[in-house]
């Protein structure tokens, strides 16, 4: 076992170069503003350049790099532009996401493909882009924003949930591969956060947090060097415990919770 924290404690942000992918709204935008206040040097990426420009106004010196994460060629182009400004990022944060609440009988090929491409394929494209330089320097870190929806199969997350489960699995594998090479891997599993994505939900969301609360929780977890940064605990811990129940009990519990009142 590794003694102490599993990852480097990221507590001093002044001058630290952070590439935030998915920074145009929600948790990504709030995290960008929080890091800017701490003195980090930021590169901000997402598809919507106008929204990125709005966030960048609150982040002095930030570099705006529009990027469609589902396009492998776009990653290479953004990387070339970033390399003209920076030697290399110290931290890359993957927080781009797509979500559509769906039950199994509501699946549509185009929507399913878009969610998988954004939430999972885009992360792989990004890893192919940034890992060679990080491996060569034996320095840097990766932050993967997954979700407690990846802990187990939850209704309404028919495509989103499996992509987040895959990200949790991927973060674990990345840690085992990259930790011996001096790289940090941080897994973020939020509960419900008030964002444009969760605004699509028509059900009650327990322990709903603001993006600003989420950003503070992420910075605290990075500062402590945690591998998994899950919040809020009053919501995420019961879900993790439920994921360990035998299937018969778990299915019965979820079925009861989903019944109309």
Provide structural commentary.
- This protein is an alpha/beta fold.
- The chain has one domain (17-258): Rossmann fold.
- 45% of the residues lie in helices and 12% in strands.
- The chain has helices spanning 26-37, 49-56, 72-83, 109-137, 160-178, 211-224, 233-243, 247-258, and strands at residues 17-21, 41-45, 63-64, 91-94, 141-145, 184-190, 228-231.
- It has a 7-stranded parallel β-sheet, with helices on both faces.
- Strand 1 (17-21), helix 1 (26-37) and strand 2 (41-45) form a beta-alpha-beta unit.
- Helix 1 crosses helix 6 (211-224) and helix 3 (72-83) runs parallel beside helix 4.
- The radius of gyration is 18 Å and the shape is globular.
- The N and C termini lie far apart (47 Å).
- The mean pLDDT is 93.
What's the end-to-end separation, in Å? Answer: 47 Å
Helix content: 40-55%
What proportion strand?
5-15%
Reported for the largest beta sheet, the result is: 7 strands, parallel
What is the number of beta strands? 7
Mean pLDDT: 93
Shape: globular
Determine and state the CATH class. Alpha Beta
Question: Which structural class matches the secondary elements?
Answer: alpha/beta
What is the ordering of alpha helices and beta strands? EHEHEHEHEHEHEHH
The CATH H-level homologous superfamily = NAD(P)-binding Rossmann-like Domain
Stated plainly, the CATH topology is called Rossmann fold
Strand order of the largest sheet: 3-2-1-4-5-6-7
Radius of gyration: 18 Å
Q: pLDDT below 50 for ≥5 consecutive residues: which ranges? A: none
| CATH architecture verdict | 3-Layer(aba) Sandwich
Number of helices: 8
Count structural domains.
1
